[in-house]
Design goal:
disordered C terminus, 13 helices, four-stranded mixed beta sheet, 50% helix, alpha+beta
Length: 402
């Protein structure tokens, strides 16, 4: 792990954060939203949007200037993720893959030449990344379900196995692949590799998920005698579990931020619709049940905001925030689900029209409740920590922030 990985970022001022929010919000309003239905219709991956976001600096918040970033910090990262999810949920997948999980894992665990080769391109949106942990037999049970193996053969490793539900892998240039290098060593037998998607033996097959739209493709991966040089390993052999936990900390913050942004989008859509739609001669916002739903959404979005940005500010200070990221991810996910469900009820039949994004809101709310650790897993982790049985920061030395 790079020595500099434990140093805090340089958080931006309130004025800088406000200016960044304005830029991303304007981009979402004027560039993303006007073309989402046309993009969904064609089904083409929005590579140009990724490049435009990279040019705006959306992906470089937690990276130093010499790597192409802005070094604005994790609060800025959370803010951008929130605003992109508010604009349109599928586009915000970029924040995990281009702005956090993939480039930060390379920065934290890669050699200098790997960092120089990939990180600037990833945060510029010119190189597309993906992260391959989940396997067909399970996602939450990362160790128990892992069947993918990497066997040492001279200066290379031969990788065989498969992965499932891997976002953007069919369009990615580079994928972080987690494998068993020692099938008898449990968590100490996992290693991580940086794999070019043009490597012989690498195959990505898109999994059709109509309910998620076309702009965030998910895939199955198959590795057949895929030969990867040993110097493509991230960290040392057997450190893959630490690499994964490191990625999860930051990934959970981003997913929490995205859930917050989507919950805000649900709230705003509900308020606008309830003030326009009439039934029985009155605006539906005047009905007590609708008022209760809007009040609940308003209060819960405010609470989720505090939890998300508390975790982000802790990361900015260099403080271990494994617990806070998990709590924010769990609570924001629950809030997002309740908001999406309430919005669907408020819109009624119109919620299922292809002319509105409400059904997409509902499906992504449920998806993000699962991503980066399911809601049930987060509850177990939080409870075990509260009981003092398994402190959530027990991996802190291995997962210090960038």
């Amino acid at each position: 792990m790079n020595d500099e990985s434990s140093s805090p970022t340089s958080p931006a001022s309130a004025e800088e954060l406000a200016a960044l929010r304005d830029v991303i919000r304007k981009f979402g309003r004027e560039t993303i939203r006007p073309q989402i239905f046309a993009l969904e219709e064609t089904g083409e991956f929005p590579r140009e949007l990724y490049q435009e976001l990279g040019a705006l600096g959306a992906f470089g918040c937690i990276f130093p200037e010499d790597q192409g970033g802005s070094n604005m910090g994790f609060e800025a990262l959370a803010l951008v993720a929130e605003e992109l999810a508010y604009a349109y949920p599928p586009i915000s997948a970029a924040m995990n893959l281009q702005a956090a999980t993939v480039p930060l894992t390379i920065k934290n665990w890669g050699r200098p030449d790997q960092v120089d080769k990939y990180v600037p391109g990833l945060i510029a949106g010119q190189v597309l990344g993906s992260n391959a942990m989940t396997e067909p037999d399970g996602g939450t049970d990362l160790l128990g379900a892992m069947r993918t193996t990497a066997v040492k053969d001279g200066d290379d490793y031969i990788i065989n196995g498969s992965k499932m539900w891997i976002t953007n892998a069919n369009v990615a240039d580079v994928v972080i692949v987690f494998c068993k290098t020692d099938t008898s060593a449990k968590h100490k037998g996992v290693s991580a590799f940086l794999v070019d998607t043009k490597t012989p033996g690498f195959e990505a097959s898109r999994v059709k998920c109509r309910v998620l739209g076309s702009l965030m493709p998910t895939n199955s991966l198959t590795f057949t005698d895929m030969r990867v040089p040993a110097d493509r390993m991230l960290g040392n052999e057997g450190e893959g579990f630490k690499v994964a936990m490191n990625a999860m900390d930051f990934g959970r913050l981003v997913v929490a931020s995205r859930s917050l942004g989507l919950a805000r989008a649900c709230l705003d859509a509900s308020v606008e619709y309830a003030d326009l739609r009439t039934a029985f001669g009155e605006k539906i916002g005047s009905f007590q049940m609708i008022k209760h739903q809007i009040a609940d959404m308003t209060a819960e979005v405010a609470a989720a905001t505090e939890l998300v940005y508390k975790a982000a500010r802790m990361f900015d200070s260099g403080t271990v925030a494994t617990r806070e990221a998990a709590i924010a991810k769990y609570f924001a996910g629950e809030v997002c689900n309740r908001a999406a469900q309430a919005t669907t009820e408020i819109f009624g039949g119109y919620a299922f029209s292809d002319e509105l994004p409400i059904s997409i809101y509902l499906n992504y709310a449920k998806l993000w409740q699962t991503g980066e650790g399911s809601a049930n897993l987060q509850r177990i982790l939080i409870a075990d920590d509260a009981l003092g049985w398994k402190p959530m920061d027990r991996h802190s030395k291995a997962t210090a922030n960038a």
